[in-house]
Every structure is written in C-alpha cells, then in structure tokens.
Design goal:
The chain is of the alpha/beta class and about 475 residues long. Helices cover about 50% and strands about 15% of the residues. The strands form six sheets. Strands 2-1-3-4-5 form a five-stranded parallel beta sheet, sandwiched between helices. A five-stranded parallel beta sheet has the order 9-12-15-8-16. The structure holds adenosine-5'-triphosphate (ATP) and magnesium ion.
C-alpha cells in the first residue's frame, strides 16, 4: 500500500508487449501508485533520472538484443536504491536465478493475475522502505560515533575524540602509544586536520624503515658533499613540514645522536643540516608514536629520558581492541560498508554467529586485523551475509573451544568431561596443523606430543568423522 504521507511511490514498467504495459498501468494506478511505462531499453536509458524511482518491473526478454538483466544494471547505476521485480516466461528458472543474482527483489512468472503482482510489489516497496530506514539509522550512528575518520563508541574512544579536539588547538608535542594496528597514524592525522595547521603539510616518517645512518639526513637534510653519496644539498623532512605537522612513527627506533638533535629542535625550533654550518629555524608540530614501551628503552639506555618527557607533553594511549569490544560491531560494519561502496557490490551484513565470533576473538593485530578480516571475508562471500565459514580458522577455533561448554543433553559428568576433552583436543590439533600448514612433525612439537601420538589421534579423528 502506498504511504499516505509524502508523494506517491513511482513505478517504472518495462515490457515490449503493449497489453502487459496496459494491464500493469491500470492495476498499479488503481492502487494509487504513479506509473511510468517504457517499451524499449533505449527509452529507459534516456529517462530523466532526476525524477525519483522506487521500483522497476522489467520483462526479462525485451526486443531482440536487449535483455532485462542488462537493463536492471543500467537502472542500478543511475538510481542504486531502486527495487526491482523481473517478469519471466514460464520455465526459465535459470534466468530467474540470474535475475536474483543481479539484485532483483523478486520475479514473477507470466502470465500472472493482478493480486499476485500487487502482493509482490507491496512487499518489494516495504522492503525498500526498511532498507532506507536502516541506511538512515546507520548514517546517524556513524555520525554520532565518529570523529574525523575514527570510529568508536567505547568510553575510551569517546574520551579520545574529546582529547583530540582539545589537543588540536594547542601546539604541544604529542606522544601516541598503543599496540600495532590500534590507529595511531589515524589519530595523528585527526589531530593535524583539526588544527589550524590543516592547510600546511602533514609529513610522515617511519623511523623503523630508514637505515640508522640516514636518519639524521632524512630528518634534517644535508649539505652538498656532507658524506659519500651526498652529491647535492637536500632539504630534510623538518623543512618539508614547516608550518605543519611531522609524524614520527616508531620514534623508539631513532639512534642516540638523532635523539639528541631532535631534542634540540623540540626545545628551540632550530637545527642544522648535516655537514652545514647555517642554523635553520622551523615551525613544526611533532607527533610521535610508538608501539614499544619507551620507559623500558630508558632503563636499557636506548632512549633518552629527557627526550621522552619532552615528547610526552600530551600523552595519548590507544587501548587494544580486545579492551574495547563494544567498538567491534561498529568497526566491522564500517569496513563492510566501505568495501561494498568501493566495489559497488551488494549490501553485505554479518550473520549473528559471525559477529559473535568477532566479539570473542582477541585481535592481536587490533583494528587493522579486523579490517583485513572483513575484506578477506568479502572475497569469499558469494551471498549477501558473511557467516562463520568466511572467517579465518584462528577466529573460528577460538569459539569452538567455548561452544563445547555443554556437549550433549546427557547429565552424566564423566561422559560430558570426556567429550569436552576430546573436542578441545581436536580444536588444538586442527589449530596446530593450520599454523604449521599441515606439517605433522612441527604440529606435534607445538602440541608437545610425539609425532606417533599425533598420528594416532589423527587416525581416531578421521574414523570418527567418517562414522
Ligand atoms: N577507530 C578506528 N576507526 C576506523 N578505522 C580505524 C580505527 N583505528 C584503526 N583504523 C584502521 O586500521 C588500520 C590501522 O590503523 P593505523 O595505521 O592508524 O594503526 P597504527 O597504530 O599506526 O598501526 P602500526 O603500529 O602497525 O603502524 C588503518 O587502516 C586504519 O584506517
Ligand atoms: Mg602506524
């Protein structure tokens, strides 16, 4: 039933048979829908696409050389959230399957009666309304729980957004700590792009990626002939970042002489290019990051204590993902939407079982690992929902050990314990084999049993599986 409020819902009917167009127009208009008709694909292509379209009802076989599925794709490109119903001739199941694959909501087999088509139309429009509502809510949630490109609803992340806003307006040096993949670089960018420096450069250097001997010339530049290979003079990254922000990733990897020079720049903004006598002055905000414990570096003498305190004027800590699990559904959804938008593919969702697994996993690689997991799952996923089978073994395994909680409905304690032991053992064996890519000798070593014992257990597993 068309909604009472707002404009009438608009339906486009495409068929090369005049009597079908006539019949459908009458039936649909009687129900209060606005109906447009077209006999040829060409008419659809040249339609005024500014005008809204809620649903298209398309004949699968149009004129020779034109087919409904190709036409559906044309419509999807111009008006992606249009719902579609395809009409097929009796018996063409393959085309019906192809139609559903191409994203049609449903199909009807000709000839059909008025009530039949009206039922499908009502359902298609209803589903589209729900879908739009989901999109609207999703956008709202994203807006509420995001800052710059960062997503998070956990108290830790909400606090972080607040902190970034405050830090952005100051020029104090920031030290971001957190495990690999927790979003340190993203936070650094958020600070820069929310500061008054946003139109000046944001320059990144990964201190772990440059050879130690080149650290100083990379950062501060060098004079011509300063060392072998320095054929011309070169500006360093501090000069490149003048007026903007320099992000020193893995700052713990700087060698002691570079640490000393960095300390001086932070103190008075001046430095010299390697092998040069002129003193240069720059206005650069430094944001440093580390996934190591710098305090430990100080104890072992690898990192200067005075530099540490100079860097950490504003300390920001990013908690690992396993300590803010409430962010997992939001992040997973964000990565899903992003990849599907990029590939113009079907809308994807996670089944509750898959989400459950994601929530239980420990995420040693943090947000980056979650991002990769989703992208990978989408590669394997042919339908519209990502289920447990699309997730990597280490994520599935972990839940397996939990699921064996109550194995059968028998109340016999010994039986239950036996079965749990067996299930846990199998889970571990499978995981060990996964990790060693099927190498049984190595797997046995990981498990702390002899190869013979492993072979024996494997034999038991396959026999059981066969029975
Ligand atoms: N809160 C978040 N919201 C959205 N995306 C995030 C978030 N945190 C991290 N990411 C994404 O996860 C990936 C890793 O983030 P980033 O590179 O900033 O981590 P990192 O802490 O610098 O990691 P590493 O120590 O390995 O360099 C990026 O693709 C980033 O976009
Ligand atoms: Mg990084």
């Amino acid at each position: 039933m068309p909604s009472d409020s707002g404009p009438r819902e608009r339906i486009l009917v495409v068929d090369d048979e005049e009597n079908v167009l006539h019949f459908l127009s009458r039936v649909l208009e009687d129900e209060g829908y606005a109906v447009e008709t077209a006999r040829r694909a060409e008419e659809v292509r040249s339609r005024d696409w500014e005008a809204p379209l809620d649903l298209a009802i398309i004949d699968l076989r149009l004129q020779p050389g034109e087919d409904g599925i190709a036409l559906l794709q044309v419509i999807r490109e111009r008006a992606p959230d249009t719902s579609a119903i395809l009409m097929t001739a009796y018996g063409s199941i393959e085309s019906a399957v192809a139609a559903m694959r191409a994203g049609a909501y449903d199909y009807v087999t000709k000839p059909f009666r008025a009530e039949e088509i009206l039922k499908v139309v009502t359902k298609a429009l209803e589903q589209r309304r729900l879908q739009r509502e989901v999109w609207r809510l999703r956008r709202e949630v994203e807006r509420r729980y995001s800052f710059a490109n960062l997503i998070g609803k956990s108290p830790a992340m909400q606090e972080l957004f607040h902190q970034i806003e405050q830090v952005a307006v100051s020029r104090g040096t920031v030290l971001i700590s957190g495990e690999s993949g927790t979003g340190k670089e993203l936070v650094a960018k958020a600070i820069h792009y929310n500061s008054l420096r946003r139109s000046a450069p944001f320059v990144v250097i990964d201190c772990a990626a440059i050879p130690e001997t080149l650290q100083e010339s990379e950062l501060f530049g060098h004079a011509k002939g300063a060392f072998t290979g320095a054929v011309t003079a070169k500006r360093g990254l501090f000069e490149e970042a003048d007026g903007g922000t320099l992000f020193l990733d893995e700052v713990g990897e700087l060698r002691p002489p570079t640490q000393a020079t960095l300390l001086r720049v932070l103190q008075d903004g001046t430095f010299r290019r390697v092998g040069d006598t002129r003193t240069l002055r720059v206005d650069v905000r430094v944001i440093a990051a580390t996934n190591k414990d710098l305090a430990e570096g100080i104890r072992t003498g690898r990192f200067r204590e005075d530099l540490y305190y100079r860097l950490k004027v504003v300390p920001i800590h990013l908690p690992p993902l396993r300590e803010r699990r409430e962010d997992i559904p939001l992040l997973a959804d964000h990565f899903l939407q992003r990849s599907t938008a990029r590939k113009h593919s079907e809308i994807h969702r996670l089944t509750p079982e898959a989400l459950d697994l994601l929530l239980r996993y420990t995420w040693p690689g943090n947000v980056r690992e979650l991002e990769n997991t989703i992208e990978r799952a989408l590669l394997f996923c042919e339908g519209e929902a990502i289920g447990p089978t699309h997730l990597p073994a280490e994520i599935r395994d972990r839940a397996e050990t939990i699921r064996v909680g109550l194995p059968s409905d028998s109340l016999c304690l010994r039986e239950a314990l036996d079965q749990m032991t067996r299930d846990t053992e199998r889970g571990l064996i499978r995981r060990a084999l996964d990790r060693t890519r099927g190498n049984r000798t190595q797997a046995a070593r990981l498990l702390g049993i002899s190869r013979r014992a492993l072979l024996y257990k494997l034999k038991g597993m396959t026999e059981k599986d066969q029975s």
